[in-house]
Amino acid sequence: MKKCKYCKSDIDKNAKICPNCRKKQNNISKWIIIAVLIIIFVPIIVSMTNEENEEKSRKKDFNQNEIATYKDVEYSITKVEKTQGNNEFVKPKEGYEYVKITIKIENKSNEKISYNALDWKLVDENGVEDNWGTYSGDDDIKLSSGNLDPNGKVEGVLVWEQKIGDNNLKLRFYDNIFDENYTLQFKIN
Ligand SMILES: [Zn+2]
Predict the structure, then answer these.
(1) 53 and 65 co-located in one domain
(2) Mind listing the pLDDT tens digit for each residue in 135-171?
(3) DSSP letter at 17?
(4) Which of 42, 72, 129, 166 has its CA 20 to 30 A from that of 25?
């Protein structure tokens, strides 16, 4: 004996239809819905997990002289200069210096990409991340923003003002400005 799912009366344990309320006892449609949901969602969850694992195992930290590749775009630092600047009127604060970093971006992908100076941030030895950089007053060819065709490349300078003698500077690249974690990081010598 078992209880009817609907009217709770005792019925034969093999009964497909309750003799009392005439309701069907097997819920095949419920199992079809569950099966369909599994078929739809399991592959989505698996692919999301794979992407997360790939992202976790991806190399993110580079030395100054290394070329970092992300989504078939090559990012590299071609020059780092620490200087008081050459402008007569614009000078760094007392105890500070300009850190000028020349960045090269080469689009090796098959798609047009966009680049932006604001994707780059400099972190000092105290872990302070400087979003905006500074203006040195020198005639540097600045990295600005724009698009790069496939096989296109661009090179430009970004300038930050940092305490003299900070040997633990790191340059960070954010692929998406809303990301909390950096996409690439270069240790600056
Ligand atoms: Zn019943």
Answers:
(1) no
(2) 777 788 899 999 999 999 999 999 999 999 899 999 9
(3) B
(4) 42
d(CA 186, CA 158) in angstroms, rounded, equals 14
Would the pLDDT of 173 be above 80? yes
Ligand 1 centroid – CA 35 distance (Å): 27
Q: Do the beta carbons of residue 113 and residue 73 sit within 8 Å? A: yes
Dist CA 157 CA 155 (whole Å)? 7
Residue 28 has pLDDT above 80, yes or no: no
Q: Same structural domain for residues 94 and 69? A: yes
How many angstroms is it from 32 CA to the middle of ligand 1?
Answer: 23
When divided into structural domains, the chain yields a total of 2
> 92: which DSSP letter?
P
How far, in Å, is the centroid of ligand 1 from the Cα of 7? 4
**How far apart are alpha carbons 92 and 75 in whole angstroms?**
28
